[in-house]
Amino acid sequence: MTTASPRTRTVGREEEAPSPVLAVEGLEVRYGRGRRGRSALRGVSLSIAPGETVGVIGETGSGKSTLARAVLGLVRVSAGSVRIGGEDVTGFGNRQWRGLRRRGVVQYVFQDPLRSLDPDLTVEDSLTEPLLIQGVPRKEAAERARAFLDRVHLPEELLGRLPGELSGGQRQRVAVARALVTEPSLVILDEPVSALDSANRVQVLEILKELRASGTSLVFISHDLGSIAGTADRIAVLYRGELVEVGAARDVVNHPRHVYTRLLVGSAPTLHSRTADRTEREALRAQLSG
Ligand SMILES: Nc1ncnc2c1ncn2[C@@H]1O[C@H](COP(=O)(O)OP(=O)(O)OP(=O)(O)O)[C@@H](O)[C@H]1O
User: Fold this and answer.
1) Contact 6/49 with Cβ under 8 angstroms?
2) 57: closest CA among 214, 239, 287?
3) Across the chain, how many H-helices and E-strands are there?
4) Is any ligand 1 atom within 6 A of the Cβ of residue 33?
5) Ligand 1 centroid vs 35 CA: distance in angstroms?
6) Which of 37, 81, 168, 171 has its CA 20 to 30 A from that of 11?
């Protein structure tokens, strides 16, 4: 189990840690019951500071989406706790989760933008709806929707279109704008660029980097270390349901400690680090399975 401490800020002469936006403690998730049940997350602890972007990396089946679902209240937690903005949400029911989302505390972006967007709402309605729910007057909501469209580098002429009338890259940018338009404290992005072609991937990653300045905390989940490395402040490495390494992005990339992280870094040709040759990769895999 690895516990990540949030960044600290100086108050007077004393160092004081800011309250984490997200604090996951000893999280366990099991799918199925009894002997047929299997554990998807074990003893996962992670804190996210205000304004921080944390990348969660892991191979397929390592538990990344389960972690996202547990933090969003979409899957039952078997043990441990999830606190968002200091509030223990572990035992929340559907109504309480709806209330949390209505208050704009936590938002999400999934790999498939059609899962994050209502197919019957125009881009304008998708962007204004969360603001109207919060009680923002219609005129102000429309102005903020336009401003956010600009922040994700989309032209105003798309406002009247339905999601089905947009390209995949445009849709994902609308999904990102919708998640951020209420200026939530926390956004969970589960593989937000995996379904995009390389040009759109680069653009959405650039947009996420620009949005980091807005003060929202981002949890950026991906199987691709290259996508995460340039975007996240810290990287958390999930392996077989456990967090095996958490650290500053440059430390994890340049000085990976866990064997699995070394394999990940060594296999990522897009990183500006030394790629392991085939023999080294085989040796690392042998250590992992040993
Ligand atoms: N609804 C479910 N019922 C049973 N097992 C599940 C369910 N969802 C996920 N699992 C299992 O839990 C483990 C973790 O799955 P999860 O989807 O969290 O992995 P992941 O890291 O997001 O993978 P991927 O990168 O392929 O999306 C896997 O072994 C998966 O088969």
Assistant:
1) yes
2) 239
3) 11, 12
4) no
5) 18
6) 81
Listed as own residue / partner, the contacts of 256-260 with beta carbons closer than 8 Å and 24 or more positions apart are: 259/284, 259/287, 259/288, 260/288
Looking at residue 280, its amino acid is E
**What is residue 49's three-state secondary structure?**
coil
ipTM: 0.96
Residue of 263, 268, 253, 264 whose CA lies nearest to 283: 263
Is 222 touching ligand 1 by the criterion CB < 6 Å? no
Tens-place pLDDT, residues 198-250: 888 888 888 888 877 778 899 999 988 888 888 899 999 999 999 999 999 99
Order of strands, edge to edge, in the sheet holding 87-88?
38-48, 22-31, 79-84, 87-88
- Does the CA dihedral 252-257-260-264 come out positive or negative? positive
Residue 174 tokens, joined: 């609308």
Distance 218 CA to ligand 1 centre (A): 21
Asked if residue 173 has its Cβ within 6 Å of ligand 1, the reply is no
pTM value?
Answer: 0.86
**CB 59, CB 223: distance < 8 Å:** yes
Q: Is 64 in the pocket of ligand 1 (CB under 6 A)?
A: yes
